[in-house]
Amino acid sequence: MMDEDVENGNLGPYQDRPRIFPAMRSKPYTPLILRILMGVNVRVLIVLLVFCLGAVFYVGARTSPIIVFVFTICIISFLFSIYLAKWVLSKDEGPPEMAQISDAIRDGAEGFFRTQYGTISKMALLLALVILGIYLFRSTTPQQESSGLGRSTSAYITVAAFLLGALCSGIAGYVGMWVSVRANVRVASAARRSAREALQVAVRAGGFSAIIVVGMAVIGVSILYAAFYVWLGVDSPGSMKVTDLPLLLVGYGFGASFVALFAQLGGGIYTKAADVGADLVGKVEQGIPEDDPRNPAVIADLVGDNVGDCAARGADLFESIAAEIVSAMILGGTMAQHCKIEDPSGFILFPLVVHSFDLVVSSIGILSIRGTRDPGVKLIEDPMAIIQKGYSVTIFFAVLTFGASTRWLLYTEQAPSAWFNFALCGLVGIMTAYVFVWITKYYTDYKHEPVRTLALSSSTGHGTNIIAGISLGLESTALPVLVISVSIISAFWLGHTSGLIDEKGNPTGGLFGTAVATMGMLSTAGYVLTMDMFGPIADNAGGIVEMSQQPESVREITDVLDAVGNTTKATTKGFAIGSAALASFLLFSAYMDEVAAFAHVPFREVDIAIPEVFVGGLLGSMLIYLFSAWACSAVGRTAQEVVNEVRRQFIERPGIMEYKEKPDYGRCVAIVASASLREMIKPGALAIISPIVVGLLFRILGHFTGRPLLGAKVVAAMLMFATVSGILMALFLNTAGGAWDNAKKYIETGALGGKGSDCHKAAVTGDTVGDPFKDTAGPSLHVLIKMLATITLVMAPVFL
């Protein structure tokens, strides 16, 4: 009917027509596994499920009662997350025009996710073959030889762990996106009733994916550990010792970070290219509001929030937790071996227990955010304060459970007070996390001085806004670095003085102390990820409200939630960097342990005064800058394509501005999707190939100059310098981007001339510059730092 009207040119005013959107739905897509499962009889499924659970618990019971405890908590948490999902999905979707926009967003997100993960899985299989080849032709450690672990067995174990890590990371990302594309419309609909209800729906939707992500990381490592324990007959005479078992899990962390890197790059390029294109033409050139239905790039922008922020951040935090659990297990095992502790399993399984408690305390935090009784109240209190209150509840319980688990697992007769020192290390980590969240909030929330100063600088033009934003970002690196430094040193000393000594009488608990501090920092990861997922869901809800042209009062509520979401996204990035800094320090120590095991010589320090080692460090720092440059320019190039497309549509279809013609949303979605998949390969390949090439080159050089450890030392220096540069670079990029975004939001609340003023246009320019900073290059760097560490762990035998 509409098509005939368009052809005959008798279009009435746009607002008088029913506000419907062209059916952009393709046929709804369900993944193959789900289609197979849906075809199976329900009773058969229940029997299968019970059988699988029985098998998992049987293997767990043969391994250790601690593993059974971890399994039980994970399964209860999964049941809790199903309750959250049911609660969110029981909310209404609002009027039909809201549901239609939401469907278009869901289709775009699921379509891109399918193609992106198709590409990633092909690359993962290729890399798995490479790892298999390398492991089949390398030396084994004396421990492995004594336990009868041949080359082929260790090769297949590493590849299986790598593929399982990659698969779990993919599932974590899919779950994050699955819930966000269904929750956005329900938050938008709830905002028509009250702000508090909208907040609660968004938090619970974020909580669902957060619990699944953390639970997957914990249960994945536990199942691998228990399966290897039973299959290899660990601790029985003549087989492998339990302290060597964690080294077999390094592939899991590498698989997780491999998928997370490409998910973050692809999703980040997608979301920001669409955002920049939509803002530059829509807001600056045409002067229409954000998320206006006349903007052809608006659906692509909203799809980007889901694939870039939800899916990618889910994979990112999954990988943080997985890498940190594995490295802490390796360090715990090494320390227990040096100190000749009778039952080392407590030290090895400690990280799994801490993260199981994380699931419990985060669930309490999520449930502490309640709706209000009376539905008439629109805006009562600041949503940020409510979310912070939930965070404080989580931290309070985290401190209690952390203390309890150190007493339970880290108590040993040789050093009766050691567990208390380690509990203090955990407290250092928890405090570090809290301070990090607070610092980032200070620099990115428009209630505080820095963002207001940045907004004020927009009143004198675009250039001064950019200068102010960059200097704010550079300044914001100082406090976090001081905090990380204090926490690493204090945790190291607490561990060092714990009273644990090796056979020569030297204190050895230092590194394990920093490992425990990292666990403390990540012990509230579930709630932090919930705060993060809240951001894109609120952003999407605002877009749906604007596109379906709801009353101004509803848009005000979603605007407040969106600004809070920007702050929570920035705080999570600060948290992710802090944990990446601590975790990479651990992974670095685990790497040195592994090299020492393969080379049969102690490997404790790296001397930067050796020219080759110094060069390795320089190359590591260069890698960070080159990677960031490629990530940002990828956004720039893709955004240019979007800008040209949006301009073309405005010129060729002048009726769009008068609501007489429909923009072609699908074109922009297609452009961004294909470009981001093409652009993510180059920076990703750079990150994976460079440490391997550097290690091999210097190994050959060392071979000819009679220095067998040269390759390993150069890679160690590369890793150190890349970590240091990467932490600073990521802090700068994340904070500057978040501050620019909220300076724009602050002006949009009516300050300094409000929307549409010259001041606002300068702030939009700043926000556009900050977009690839905070959502593409910055978050990809957290993953890059940890991926370099996990690659070197997996490839260590090659550098010797």
UniProtKB/TrEMBL annotation:
The way it spans or sits in the membrane comes to: Multi-pass membrane protein
Q: Where is it predominantly found?
A: membrane
Query: Does the keyword field hold Hydrolase?
Result: no
Gene Ontology terms: cellular component: endomembrane system; membrane
Q: What would be an example GO MF term here? A: diphosphate hydrolysis-driven proton transmembrane transporter activity
Q: What's one Pfam family the UniProt record gives for this protein?
A: H_PPase
Q: Which residues cross the membrane?
A: 32-60, 66-85, 120-137, 157-181, 201-225, 245-263, 348-369, 390-411, 417-439, 478-496, 508-529, 574-592, 613-636, 684-702, 714-733
> In the UniProt record, does the keyword Lipid metabolism occur?
no
Cellular location of this protein? Answer: Endomembrane system
Which key words tag this protein in UniProt?
Ion transport, Magnesium, Membrane, Translocase, Transmembrane, Transmembrane helix, Transport
| Enzyme Commission number(s) from the entry | 7.1.3.1
Q: Which PANTHER family match?
A: K(+)-INSENSITIVE PYROPHOSPHATE-ENERGIZED PROTON PUMP
State the protein's name: H(+)-exporting diphosphatase
Q: Which organism is it from?
A: Protea cynaroides
Q: What is the lineage of its organism?
A: Eukaryota, Viridiplantae, Streptophyta, Embryophyta, Tracheophyta
